[in-house]
Amino acid sequence: MGMLLLYLAALILIPLWAQSKVKKAYKKYSNVSNSSGMTGASVAKKILEENGIYNVRVEPTKGKLTDHYDPSKKVVRLSEDNYYNSTVAAQAIASHEVGHAIQDAENYAFLRFRSTLAPVASTGSNLSFFLILAGILLQSTGMFLAGIVFFSAAVLFQLVTLPVEFNASSRAMNQIVATGIISNNEERETKKVLDAAALTYVAAALVAVLELGRFIAMFLMTSEE
């Protein structure tokens, strides 16, 4: 019982801890102006131009921390705070999203693999819990195992996301330094924002692996009965 409680606590607390870190860093550096005076939109457009990428648009989008790159429509979407404001947080997040656009332009293997895996992972995530629950209720090891296989696709997606996100952050730092967007004393602050955001992906992957481990353990115990 003690191990089960510890496990459940980890599933709940790890994501909450990661989210609190990114929110704290974002809130802090959203109130710190960057030295260049460039908005997130300007940072994104400059990096795209410096890399000869002219087929990617930069657009504002509603919400907070809704920033993302859409490879299917070739658009970098920045939350309005980051699009219009000239803060350390805005330049960090804008450059990270453009990092994904550069990955796309260079046919970065992990990004391609993740895009291919996305629909399978989405289906697997939605279907797996139904199959696992049905397998338990109907005492069907076949359905239970099928659920685990489908859930494994979702876990693989989370794991593949890690190199994609870390690489985008690495590219972001390289680009904003190389283009002279940030001064030396801003590198540390910008990296803090990027590192905090990366924690959310690490937490999601860790929770997914723990969940998969739990399902496998349950399946093995059911099979032995």
From TrEMBL:
Recorded protein name is Zn-dependent protease
Q: Which PANTHER family match?
A: MEMBRANE PROTEASE YUGP-RELATED
Q: Which UniProt keywords apply?
A: Membrane, Transmembrane, Transmembrane helix
Q: Does the keyword NAD apply?
A: no
- Which segments cross the bilayer? 117-137, 144-164, 198-221
Q: Tell me which species this is from.
A: Marinococcus luteus
Q: Does the keyword ATP-binding apply?
A: no
Among Pfam families, the record links this protein to:
Zn_peptidase_2
InterPro entries named among the record's database cross-references: Zn_peptidase_2 (IPR007395)
